[in-house]
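Field reference: sequence -> structure
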Amino acid sequence: MKVMLVPNRSRADAVEGTRELSRWLQSEGVEVTVAPELSHGERGLPPVEDFNLVVSLGGDGTLLRAASIVACSEVPILGLSYGHLGFLTGADSSHIRQTVGSALAGELHASRRATLSVDVYFEDSGPLFDLFCLNEMAISRGAMGDIVEFDIAVSGEPIDRLRADGFVVATATGSTGYALSAGGPIVTPSFTGMVCVPIAPHTILARAFLTAASDVVEIALSPERPVERLVFLDGRLATEGAQASRIIVRRGSGDIILLSEDTGEFYQSVSRVFYGTTGARGEARR
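Structure field:
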């Protein structure tokens, strides 16, 4: 049995939880690997397919890092919440031995989450193919603040030419992140299409829309407005020092498997985080 731990090293409680969990797992005969600091990248890690479980200890950002390590390998991820929001990391960090033990025993609920595969083409360099996202791809204006002009097409059908601060293509999992902040809908995790949301468009007509799972979203940056354009994948800058010209987004080749203690955790989290209620009857917080 092998377990990888992915901690948020900026939180003392997550670091201490990692130490405690590592000691306990090793005492139970489990082989433990702790992911290196983010600045060191993921080089040197054993093949993720060798692991039975990946545990993130932190907030939603830490879970997204764990997801980037796991990618589409089918290794389940358990998110222990040590962060501020805890929308994706719903497992209780106050009973980590019991929770992780239940995960290893196959007693937790498994939720399959669709992913994104992103191809980015550049003006002056070679393309990047099949980049992984769990939450979203976002194209955004640069440091000078100039709006971006681009054409949107879905499966070869033109949608519109927009001038905006940017554009988000999200999974259902990412619908409660950047896409929601930009005005998109909250979407159940069982939805396998994409959520497309303009960011501050310079028109009152542009609206968010959903695609089918088989659709392909293409964003073509206008050469008539050669301003700085930044592409982010799950919040990570993918285009540093290069100017994107075209982006193609499709559903990823595999899913991420998230473990939780309750089959209704998504709607409980929606109620808690976005509607300010708690408990079985949804009593309002005061």
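Note: The domain at 2-113+255-284 is CATH 3.40.50.10330 (Rossmann fold).
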